[in-house]
Description:
There is one protein chain. This protein is α+β, with helices and mostly antiparallel strands and 95 residues long. It has a single domain (3-93), classed as 2-Layer Sandwich (Alpha-Beta Plaits). Helices cover 26% and strands 46% of the residues. The protein contains two helices and four strands. It has helices spanning 19-27, 63-78; strands spanning 3-12, 37-47, 50-60, 82-93. It has a four-stranded antiparallel sheet. The longest helix is centred in the C-terminal third of the chain and has 16 residues, at 63-78. The protein starts with a strand and ends with a strand.
Amino acid sequence: xxxxLSILRIIPTSPEVSRxxxxxxxxxxxxxxxxxxxxxxxxxxxxxxxxxxxxxxxTADSDxxxxxxxxxxxxxxxxxEVDNCEIELQTIIxx
Length: 95
């Protein structure tokens, strides 16, 4: 069965917010009960010291995988340190 690789682009509320804390929570407590894997992360400079966080997330290529990713995105958006979260790219992968 194939999997889907999604890149989530997370924008913190300010440059003072700990990006490490957001990533740490995203890799542990926010993915509890969800069938997904956070494969890697990158940071992209935006402006005035603000950085976007890109999380590379693997889910199943199914309706359940789509629902799982939506729940994960909703959990990220619920964090008060996160201003915005969007799916930047999705592609099918075979691992």
